[in-house]
Write a structure and sequence with these properties.
heterodimer, A: 192 residues, mainly alpha, Rna Polymerase Sigma Factor, Chain: A, Arc Repressor Mutant, subunit A, elongated, B: mainly alpha, 9 helices, 72% helix
Chain lengths: 192, 195
């Protein structure tokens, strides 16, 4: 029996180790209070291990772990009731700054380039994520960091597939709009 | 497919979430529509940049070492350390029994087959005990328990037998003054009286 338990722990850790970095990155971006990320990770891992006998080999361990971690992070966010305080909505004119659909940049500054997005500073990314609702942020991060399928994202959050697509589209638009606005602001500062 | 319809599906298409038929239709449209093809290429680059920025992170070794240790410690039958509360070691026969128990436990831990052997020995002992005690049980059941009157009767018989024996062994009354040969105590008593 002891050998079985040990092998269970070994098997669990063998599945966990390859995704530890992604789990931590996801958690730190999803949770409002950065200092609570270690607790959220530890709680999620222990919950997953406690339920490991109910995990089926044919399911994606990655998706399973991200789902548990999402619930843990949401619980902590709700516990501190900080969602409303952190979230703020973008104005409609800010959404118009999207580079998609070939629209010319309304601000007259340089259009948002791929390089600009990939070199976005960490504070800008963090601030951009705060423009999203909890669900939009989770959908975006589960796709970008978790690399989950739409179906897996829907199962993780308990929302239908159509909502996943809608939230993901809105989240991407908001992030690009925020970054485009930051870029324009930086360009104006350079010109002045 | 019209341009508006194709552009509305750019997200699921680039995320490889569309079915084979829809994907094929979009691919065909992009081949024949340079405008949509350019927009899709730009969209793909932007999404890749955003994804790279969001996925930028690191693993904290100390945190994960702590978490992994917690997992190992939470294993249901993980070997547990002896509780620190026990301060005095057993002595004398307790130490002997403790040592024997430790040896037995260590042996059983090393060889799980020992459990099967132990169970087999107990099984044999149980079978032998049952077969040996079965006739006796029947015998006792057949005899039954004697009643109180039977016990009294047997006790009376024994008393009469003892009385008969005592009467038969009693010597004839030849001389009433012939005392029994004195023992050591009698000697001492006689000496005391004489003095």
């Amino acid at each position: 029996m002891r050998e079985t338990a040990t092998s269970d722990a070994d098997r669990f850790l063998a599945l966990l180790r390859p995704i530890e970095r992604d789990l931590e990155t996801y958690c730190r971006r999803l949770i409002w209070e950065p200092q609570e990320a270690p607790d959220a990770l530890q709680n999620a891992v222990m919950r997953a291990y406690a339920a490991f006998d109910r995990y089926h080999e044919d399911a994606s361990f990655r998706a399973w772990m991200f789902k548990i971690l999402t619930h843990e992070a949401f619980a902590l966010n709700r516990k501190h009731a900080r969602i409303a305080r952190h979230e703020f909505q973008l104005e409609p004119e800010e959404l118009e700054g999207l580079p998609f659909a070939g629209e010319p940049d309304q601000g007259g500054s340089r259009p948002l380039s791929t390089e600009a997005l990939s070199e976005v500073l960490e504070p800008e990314l963090a601030a951009g994520l705060k423009t999203l609702t909890d669900t939009e942020r989770a959908v975006l991060l589960l796709r970008a960091i978790g690399d989950l399928r739409y179906r897996e994202i829907g199962e993780s959050l308990g929302i239908p597939l159509g909502s996943v697509m809608g939230d993901l589209s809105r989240a991407r638009q908001k992030m690009r709009a925020y970054i485009a606005r930051s870029t324009r602001r930086a360009n104006l500062l350079e010109e002045n | 497919m019209r341009c508006e319809e194709v552009q509305s599906l750019h997200g699921p298409y680039l995320d490889s979430e569309l079915g084979a038929r829809a994907s094929l239709e979009i691919e065909q449209h992009l081949k024949s529509c340079p405008g949509c093809a350019r927009l899709f290429a730009e969209e793909q680059k932007l999404e890749a940049g955003l994804k790279a920025g969001l996925a930028r992170g690191s693993r904290t070794p100390a945190l994960w070492e702590r978490i992994e240790r917690s997992v190992v410690a939470a294993a249901p039958t993980a070997p547990r350390s002896r509780p620190p509360g026990r301060v005095s070691e057993p002595s004398g026969w307790q130490a002997l029994l403790w040592g024997l128990g430790e040896q037995l436990r260590a042996g059983l831990r090393r060889s799980p087959r020992a459990w099967a052997g132990l169970a087999l020995v107990w099984g044999v002992i149980l079978v032998l005990d049952l077969t040996a005690s079965e006739p006796n049980a029947r015998l006792v059941a057949g005899q039954g328990i004697p009643s109180v009157s039977e016990i009294r009767f047997a006790w009376k018989q024994k008393q009469l037998l003892m009385a008969d024996l005592a009467f038969a062994l009693e010597p004839a009354p030849a001389g009433k003054s012939s005392p029994a040969p004195p023992g050591p105590h009698s000697d001492r008593q006689t000496d005391n009286l004489n003095t």
